[in-house]
Design goal:
Blueprint lengths: L3 H4 L5 H4 L3 E2 L1 H8 L3 H9 L7 E2 L5 E4 H13 L1
Antiparallel strand pairs: 1-3, 2-3
Helix pairs in contact: 3-4
Length: 74
C-alpha cells in the first residue's frame, strides 16, 4: 500500500493552491489536531469545503493558506 506522500503528484506552484486536501491534511496544514479542526469546521470558523463525494469533503490548499494569513493579520 502506498502512502499519500508516495501518491502525491508534483504540481506547478500556480496549481498547488487548487489542490484538494482532506480534513486530516487540512488539520496538519493548519497545525491543529483533527478533532480541533473538525470542531472549527462545525462552528463555521474555517473556509467551507467542497463536496467531492457523497460523504467526502475537500478543502483547497490555497483557501486554507489565505485563511491562515488573514488570522495572522488579525
Amino acid at each position: 500500500m502506498q502512502t499519500s506522500a508516495a501518491r502525491r503528484v508534483s504540481l506547478p506552484p500556480s496549481l498547488e493552491r487548487d489542490r484538494l486536501i482532506d480534513s486530516g491534511q487540512a488539520a496538519a496544514l493548519l497545525g491543529f489536531s483533527l478533532t480541533h479542526f473538525r470542531r472549527l469546521y462545525r462552528a463555521g470558523k474555517v473556509p467551507p469545503p467542497l463536496r467531492i463525494g457523497e460523504r467526502k469533503f475537500g478543502w483547497k490548499a490555497g483557501a486554507l493558506t489565505d485563511w491562515i494569513a488573514a488570522q495572522e493579520r488579525g
